[in-house]
Amino acid sequence: MSKVIIYTLSRGCSTSDKARRALTERGIDFEERRVDEDPKFWDEALNYAFTVPVIVWGEDDVEIGWEGEHG
Asked: Among 8, 54, 5, 53, which residue's Cα sits nearest to residue 29?
């Protein structure tokens, strides 16, 4: 599997929390990019959506939100 990247908020977003927790529990290795801590990550996330989490599973597979939820 390609590297998984997840754009999140560091606090105050229960959907980001759920996504991080679920990926960890499922043993999925991912890189977290916290959009509220680095403006560069926010700019990257905006290429996909105006909400988080945004999960980039691979080159052509992007999930907005987590299992139907948006933050």
From this structure: 5
C-alpha distances out from residue 34 to 1, 40, 49, 57, Å: 22, 10, 14, 17
Distance CA 46, CA 60 (A): 16
**How many Å apart are CA 49 and CA 25, to the nearest integer?**
25
Q: What is the pTM of this model?
A: 0.88
User: Residue 39 to residues 7, 24, 63: CA-CA distances in angstroms?
Assistant: 12, 25, 21
CATH code for position 21? 3.40.30.10
CA-CA distance, 34 to 60, in Å (whole number)?
21
Q: State residue 71's pLDDT score.
A: 56
Q: Containing H/E element for 32?
A: strand 30-34
69 part of a folded domain: no
Does any domain span residue 70? no
